[in-house]
């Protein structure tokens, strides 16, 4: 079941700038027309002047524009891992990869095996916004990150963030921010290899060493703490390369490709590989009910699932059990839903620890 936003609890989080709530909701300030993260450093607005929404898309659909100080595009992404709707989670992953940049909601619903009206209802219930609004917000926030974190030209930013034309890109930013996109530019440079560098957020705790070890064990290229993968036209839409490393509580990503149109899809896959949208607090709270997992959760907080570059299974990754999981354990794991895969991961760490002991 969804947990509705509690306005008074949300306001307390805003007043104290509580990091635990970053990305869980956004604050709409009526007097300024701006929406912010709960951790925004600006002066806390009066209670009667704010309302709260579950997503950035809901705020923008209501006519609010993103704060330039707290930068909502840098908040941890909560959408696909709320544990409330596997369908919404899969839809968000497809939208993030560009499903609505060229296709429509009917086609997206068909890929999910449902009707367009039903998909719209689910988005309203879980995110407070329509699928097209979610797609638009993702485009805008990615463009804003590219403007402020890279030195790409505005035409390149428009292309890389999924806008169909530079004119549409300019018009959207003028309408949202009352200024051209170039006015949001900060000093930035490209990567050493000429690639696009971006910093992706995730929610602490995160066991970075365990993730890199898991990626190396399964055969990924990991050297000196840097993960790398070659891009191919057949899989990614263009040739090139992508690398990622942990840096001060964020994942620093560099993408080198001659075709910037593939950037949203590549970033979506990087997020999946590194499980950046996971919510450790929600996972731990649910799994700790199993007394057998509680000590493992306390000993190794922040374990993540190494995701596949291409997602072909219809089962939500968080709920996917290993093929060698026994029937007896599978029955026990039903109590871990929707986090069965994390429960299996923690169970494995317990077994490894016992063998080592």
Helix-strand blueprint:
Layout: H1 7-16, E1 26-29, E2 34-36, E3 50-53, H2 56-61, E4 65-66, H3 86-96, H4 99-102, H5 105-111, H6 116-127, H7 131-149, H8 154-160, H9 166-177, E5 196-200, H10 208-217, E6 221-223, E7 226-231, H11 233-236, E8 240-247, E9 250-256, H12 263-273, H13 280-287, H14 291-299, H15 327-333, H16 340-356
Parallel strand pairs: 2-4
Antiparallel strand pairs: 1-2, 1-3, 5-9, 6-7, 7-8, 8-9
Largest sheet: 5 strands, antiparallel
Structural class: alpha+beta
Radius of gyration: 20 Å
Uncertain residue ranges: 79-84
How many helices in DSSP terms? 16
CATH topology of the largest domain: Arc Repressor Mutant, subunit A
CATH class call of the largest domain: Mainly Alpha
Per DSSP, what share of the residues sits in E-state strands of 2 or more residues?
Answer: 5-15%
Annotated CATH architecture of the largest domain: Orthogonal Bundle
Number of strands: 9
Provide the spatial order of strands within the biggest beta sheet: 5-9-8-7-6
Order of helices and strands: HEEEHEHHHHHHHEHEEHEEHHHHH
Shape: globular
Question: What's the helical proportion of residues?
Answer: 40-55%
Q: How many separate domains? A: 4
Indicate the mean pLDDT. Answer: 88
Distance between the termini: 41 Å
What can you see in these coordinates?
The protein has four domains: 7-70, DNA Methylphosphotriester Repair Domain (3-Layer(aba) Sandwich), CATH 3.40.10.10; 79-184, Homeodomain-like (Arc Repressor Mutant, subunit A), CATH 1.10.10.60; 196-273, TATA-Binding Protein (2-Layer Sandwich), CATH 3.30.310.20; 280-356, no CATH class. A hairpin with a 2-residue loop joins strand 6 and strand 7 (226-231). It is an alpha+beta fold and 357 residues long. The protein has 16 helices and nine strands. The protein has helices spanning 7-16, 56-61, 86-96, 99-102, 105-111, 116-127, 131-149, 154-160, 166-177, 208-217, 233-236, 263-273, 280-287, 291-299, 327-333, 340-356; strands at residues 26-29, 34-36, 50-53, 65-66, 196-200, 221-223, 226-231, 240-247, 250-256. It is 43% helix and 12% strand. It has a five-stranded antiparallel beta sheet with strand order 5-9-8-7-6. It has a four-stranded mixed beta sheet with strand order 3-1-2-4.
């Amino acid at each position: 079941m969804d947990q509705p936003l509690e306005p008074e609890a949300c306001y307390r989080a805003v007043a104290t700038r509580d990091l635990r709530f970053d990305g869980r909701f956004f604050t709409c300030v009526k007097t300024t027309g701006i929406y912010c993260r709960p951790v925004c450093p600006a002066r806390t607005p009066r209670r009667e002047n704010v309302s709260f929404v579950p997503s950035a898309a809901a705020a923008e659909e209501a006519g609010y524009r993103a704060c330039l100080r707290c930068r909502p595009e840098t908040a941890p992404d909560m959408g696909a891992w709320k544990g409330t709707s596997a369908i919404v989670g899969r839809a968000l992953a497809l939208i993030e990869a560009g499903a609505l940049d060229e296709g429509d909601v009917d086609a997206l619903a068909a890929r999910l095996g449902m009707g367009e009206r039903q998909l719209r209802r689910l988005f309203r219930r879980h995110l407070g916004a329509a699928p097209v609004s979610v797609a638009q917000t993702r485009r805008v926030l990615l463009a804003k990150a590219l403007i402020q974190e890279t030195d790409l030209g505005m035409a390149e930013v428009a292309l890389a963030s999924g806008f169909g034309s530079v004119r549409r890109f300019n018009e959207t930013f003028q309408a949202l921010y009352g200024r051209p996109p170039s006015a949001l530019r900060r000093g930035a440079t490209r990567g050493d290899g000429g690639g696009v560098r971006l910093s992706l957020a995730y929610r602490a705790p995160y066991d970075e060493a365990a993730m890199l070890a898991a990626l190396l064990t399964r055969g990924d290229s990991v050297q000196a703490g840097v993960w790398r993968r070659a891009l191919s036209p057949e899989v990614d839409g263009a040739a090139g390369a992508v690398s990622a490393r942990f840096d001060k509580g964020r994942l620093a990503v560099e993408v080198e490709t001659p075709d910037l149109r593939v950037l949203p899809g590549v970033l979506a896959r990087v997020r999946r590989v590194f499980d950046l949208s996971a919510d450790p607090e929600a996972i731990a709270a649910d799994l700790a009910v199993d007394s057998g997992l509680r000590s493992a959760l306390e000993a190794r907080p922040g374990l993540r699932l190494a995701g596949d570059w291409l997602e072909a299974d219809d089962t939500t990754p968080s709920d996917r059990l290993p093929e060698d999981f026994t029937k007896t354990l599978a029955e026990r794991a039903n109590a871990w839903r929707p986090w069965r895969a994390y429960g299996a991961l923690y169970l494995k760490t317990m077994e490894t620890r016992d063998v080592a002991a």
